[in-house]
């Protein structure tokens, strides 16, 4: 297919969901442990067309080292299984890992479009002054800006776009048959829900988005964007809507909006800033495009905006 990764071992999916029945998705989950992120390759078994959801670019902050190790393993899996990725889907502009969307686009055949919700433009406007971006920084970044409730096909599969704001204003979910890719809105029942204190985030809005997910049929399955497994439980990626309704620790059936907002706001007030916040945002709001190398050193630099002041003596 693209023949550049023959020496790189294909990553074995952490789990595979689906039996290959025509018209239903075959879902391959790939766990990235450093950022506790789930990545998904969703394949139409009849045509082998697929979408890739929330791929991760490896980044080590202390050394400033970028790596495509995780992405290359998935690319080899795609090639070995003759899968044709037709879209790369972002659920939102992540603040906890760097997206590998541009790297996948550069390696996959067919100029695969990178897709995100239309409200990414609001997120870009919020963070452009933080990182010193002008309007030109966002040219030729995302390829498709998805509309609320938009529907498109991947082979014989139908994908429906859900607007799920609250964690971030641009946040989307994707419904494919009975699978719902929820990103950072709802997590597994013993983890609960995502934070809602980022710019444009809102606990009331997040509760509404979670309620939208809870209203789906009970046999639908929620595939989450992260897992922070408590205790000795191993990482998992999926549970049914029925399980969410019955036992989600933050928003099970019977939870009032008032109590959710009180808990979520109090919890968010004591959470630390995500470890990769600034590297992630300045890359992810540009669809994974890295800054241009310095003209003198040839090195790529990311910015860390400082707060506070130190008086000189």
UniProtKB/TrEMBL annotation:
<keyword id="KW-0378">Hydrolase</keyword>
<dbReference type="InterPro" id="IPR036866">
    <property type="entry name" value="RibonucZ/Hydroxyglut_hydro"/>
</dbReference>
<dbReference type="GO" id="GO:0070813">
    <property type="term" value="P:hydrogen sulfide metabolic process"/>
</dbReference>
<dbReference type="GO" id="GO:0050313">
    <property type="term" value="F:sulfur dioxygenase activity"/>
</dbReference>
<keyword id="KW-0479">Metal-binding</keyword>
<dbReference type="InterPro" id="IPR044528">
    <property type="entry name" value="POD-like_MBL-fold"/>
</dbReference>
<dbReference type="Pfam" id="PF00753">
    <property type="entry name" value="Lactamase_B"/>
</dbReference>
<protein>
    <submittedName>
        <fullName>Metallo-hydrolase/oxidoreductase</fullName>
    </submittedName>
</protein>
<dbReference type="GO" id="GO:0016787">
    <property type="term" value="F:hydrolase activity"/>
</dbReference>
<dbReference type="GO" id="GO:0046872">
    <property type="term" value="F:metal ion binding"/>
</dbReference>
<dbReference type="GO" id="GO:0006749">
    <property type="term" value="P:glutathione metabolic process"/>
</dbReference>
<dbReference type="InterPro" id="IPR051682">
    <property type="entry name" value="Mito_Persulfide_Diox"/>
</dbReference>
<feature type="domain" description="Metallo-beta-lactamase">
    <location>
        <begin position="36"/>
        <end position="226"/>
    </location>
</feature>
<dbReference type="InterPro" id="IPR001279">
    <property type="entry name" value="Metallo-B-lactamas"/>
</dbReference>
């Amino acid at each position: 297919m693209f023949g550049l990764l023959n020496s790189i071992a294909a990553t074995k999916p952490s789990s595979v969901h689906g039996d290959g029945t025509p018209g239903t998705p075959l879902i391959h989950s790939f766990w990235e442990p450093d950022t506790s992120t789930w990545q998904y390759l969703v394949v139409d078994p009849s045509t082998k067309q697929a979408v890739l959801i929330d791929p991760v670019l490896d980044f080590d902050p202390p050394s400033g080292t970028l790596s495509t190790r995780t992405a290359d393993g998935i690319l080899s899996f795609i090639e070995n299984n003759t899968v044709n990725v037709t879209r790369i889907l972002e659920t939102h502009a992540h603040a906890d890992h760097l997206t590998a969307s541009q790297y996948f686009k550069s390696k996959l055949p067919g100029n695969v479009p990178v897709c995100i919700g239309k409200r990414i433009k609001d997120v870009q406007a919020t963070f452009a002054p933080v990182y010193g971006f002008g309007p030109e920084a966002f040219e030729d970044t995302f390829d498709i800006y998805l509309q609320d409730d938009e529907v498109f096909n991947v082979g014989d599969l139908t994908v429906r776009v859900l607007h799920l704001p609250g964690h971030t204003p641009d946040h989307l979910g994707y419904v494919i048959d009975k699978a719902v890719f929820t990103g950072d809105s709802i997590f597994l029942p013993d983890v609960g829900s995502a934070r809602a204190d980022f710019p444009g985030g809102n606990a009331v809005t997040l509760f509404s988005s979670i309620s939208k997910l809870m209203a789906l049929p009970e046999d639908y399955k929620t595939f989450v964007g992260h897992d922070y497994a408590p205790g000795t439980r191993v990482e998992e990626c999926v549970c049914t809507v029925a399980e969410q309704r019955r036992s989600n620790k933050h928003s099970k059936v019977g939870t009032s909006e008032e109590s959710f907002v009180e808990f979520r706001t109090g919890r968010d007030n004591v959470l630390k800033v995500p470890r990769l916040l600034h590297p992630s945002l300045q890359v992810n709001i540009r669809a994974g495009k890295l800054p241009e190398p310095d003209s003198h050193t040839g090195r790529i630099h990311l910015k860390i905006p400082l707060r506070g002041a130190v008086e000189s003596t």
